[in-house]
């Protein structure tokens, strides 16, 4: 039976290219897909729906030869011929007729072994696997170079936002100065709900889960690790530096309280989970954490599940890449875009990207969080008695932390909330101040600190 994609009562065929279907004098590119989940299903849909258009634009016949998954019985709403579906991954990795392998299973293993085997067999690889590239990218790219092929990964950052392609091609002559990004839709949705609807963190997280924006176990998103994987990939591309994932400072949003959201609004700021990468003469500054961002900044207007990457370069200046950072079709669109680039490379061979080979000669220290200097928002709960501010000011003064403003937010039964904004200070000094402040008997709860960024 012919493979068909069901659109209501209408079907559209996508199947292996047979001799009677091949357009004469047109090359056939065979594809092997590993992972038939949400994104894999989206890839099949696009290849089916756009098959004629893609063939016309690329000048090749497209043949989806194998789709491999552990589960090939559950319906995905996409019907494929039985000889295309398989649970045997070696059919994809070892078939000499397959030129392109698409890996969409995620995680480190067995995805890493699958990709390395595909590269060893001289196959181009497309992946959306941000965790694998962030933690094992050097090994993956070195294997690609050694075997004369390449790895494409547009879908690993920002879903359908073409930021990887822009950095790789459109901005090739630019030196990137900084990246400020909102690249986790789950966390951004939660913070947006807290700001717009006045919901606390737990309620906003539950809303995100109910709408399918957050996983049942949301730790990877709300703890900042998903954003850290993505900024590691962007940093590697932009700064051509070897980055150990463990060196990236990561802090999530689970400790952000509704009070912090409200005080930020009063002070003309928004709280966003930012993934930041900057370079100076001494080190790379790569980190993920919640931050106060001025309302006038473009990133402050990125709400809900949308992602945005704000890049500043020496030639093109500032630019914003904005769109849906996840979802079946946006992410699958990025995968298909990579496939089209590979087809062009197969048709017109070109030099491999040397940035992805051996970066050992270009290692630059990744800063620790204590190396940075910025402004800070500090909120603490104090007992209601004279002399509290004097004791706190004394600690800050000894550590060379200058106070920009202080607000006392009324009285509560539990104590007096006090909000401070500092001038620029060293993180190491602020952390020491927090330790000393927390030891005072006039402080009733551990102070909350959020860094302030201007996005420049």
Written description of the protein model:
With 456 residues, the protein is of the alpha/beta class. The chain has helices at 38-49, 51-58, 90-93, 111-120, 130-146, 163-170, 185-197, 201-210, 219-222, 225-239, 258-266, 328-347, 388-398, 427-438; strands at residues 4-7, 10-13, 27-34, 60-68, 78-79, 85-86, 98-103, 124-127, 151-152, 176-182, 249-250, 269-279, 284-294, 306-313, 317-324, 373-382, 403-408, 416-422, 425-426, 448-452. The strands form three sheets. Strands 10, 11, 12, 13, 14, 15, 16, 17, 18, 19 and 20 form an eleven-stranded mixed sheet that branches. The radius of gyration is 25 Å and the shape is elongated.
Record the SSE blueprint.
Layout lengths: L3 E4 L2 E4 L13 E8 L3 H12 L1 H8 L1 E9 L9 E2 L5 E2 L3 H4 L4 E6 L7 H10 L3 E4 L2 H17 L4 E2 L10 H8 L5 E7 L2 H13 L3 H10 L8 H4 L2 H15 L9 E2 L7 H9 L2 E11 L4 E11 L11 E8 L3 E8 L3 H20 L25 E10 L5 H11 L4 E6 L7 E7 L2 E2 H12 L9 E5 L4
Parallel strand pairs: 3-4, 3-7, 4-6, 7-8, 8-9, 11-13, 13-20
Antiparallel strand pairs: 1-2, 1-5, 10-12, 10-14, 12-13, 14-15, 16-18, 16-19, 16-20, 17-18
Helix pairs in contact: 1-12, 4-5, 5-10, 7-8
| Percentage of residues in DSSP E strands | 25-35%
Regarding quaternary structure, what we see is single chain
Question: What would CATH call the architecture of the largest domain?
Answer: 3-Layer(aba) Sandwich
The number of E-state strands comes to: 20
Averaged pLDDT: 88
Shape: elongated
Major β-sheet, in short? 11 strands, mixed
Number of domains: 3
């Amino acid at each position: 039976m012919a493979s068909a994609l069901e659109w209501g009562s209408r079907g559209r065929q996508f199947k292996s290219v047979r001799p009677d279907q091949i357009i004469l004098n047109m090359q056939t590119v065979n594809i092997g897909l590993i992972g038939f989940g949400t994104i894999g299903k989206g890839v099949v849909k696009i290849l089916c729906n756009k098959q004629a258009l893609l063939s016309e634009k690329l000048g090749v016949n497209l043949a989806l030869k194998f789709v491999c998954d552990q589960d090939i019985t559950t319906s995905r709403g996409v019907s494929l011929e039985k000889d295309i579906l398989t649970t045997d991954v070696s059919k994809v990795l070892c078939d000499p007729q397959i030129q392109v392998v698409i890996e969409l299973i995620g995680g480190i293993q067995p995805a890493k072994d699958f990709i390395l085997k595909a590269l060893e067999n001289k196959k181009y690889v497309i992946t959306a696997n941000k965790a694998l590239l962030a933690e094992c990218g050097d090994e993956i790219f070195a294997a690609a170079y050694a075997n004369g092929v390449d790895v494409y990964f547009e879908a690993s950052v920002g879903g359908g936002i073409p930021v990887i392609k822009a950095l790789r091609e459109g901005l090739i002559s630019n030196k990137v100065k900084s990246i400020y990004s909102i690249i986790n839709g789950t966390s951004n949705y939660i913070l947006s709900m807290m700001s717009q609807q006045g919901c606390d963190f737990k309620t906003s997280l539950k809303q995100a889960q109910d709408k399918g924006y957050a996983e049942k176990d949301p730790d990877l998103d709300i703890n900042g690790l998903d954003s850290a994987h993505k900024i590691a990939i962007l940093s590697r591309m932009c700064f051509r530096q070897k980055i150990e994932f463990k060196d990236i400072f990561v802090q999530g949003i689970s400790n952000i309280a509704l009070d912090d959201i409200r005080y930020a609004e009063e002070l003309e700021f928004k709280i966003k989970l930012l993934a930041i990468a900057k370079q100076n003469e001494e080190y790379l500054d790569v980190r993920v954490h919640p931050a106060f961002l001025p309302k006038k900044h473009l990133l402050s207007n990125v709400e809900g599940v949308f992602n945005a990457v704000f890049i500043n370069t020496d030639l093109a200046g500032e630019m914003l890449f904005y769109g849906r950072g996840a979802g079946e079709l946006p992410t699958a669109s990025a995968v298909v875009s990579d496939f089209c680039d590979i087809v062009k490379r197969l048709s017109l061979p070109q030099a491999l990207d040397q940035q992805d080979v051996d970066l050992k000669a270009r290692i630059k220290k990744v800063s620790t969080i204590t190396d940075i200097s910025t402004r800070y928002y500090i909120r603490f709960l104090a007992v209601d008695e004279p002399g509290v501010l004097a004791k706190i000011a004394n600690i800050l003064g000894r550590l060379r932390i200058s106070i920009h403003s202080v607000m006392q937010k009324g009285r509560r039964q539990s104590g007096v909330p006090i909000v401070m904004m500092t001038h620029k200070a060293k993180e190491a000094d602020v952390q020491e101040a927090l330790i000393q402040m927390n030891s005072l008997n006039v402080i009733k709860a551990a102070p909350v600190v959020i860094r302030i960024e201007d996005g420049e």
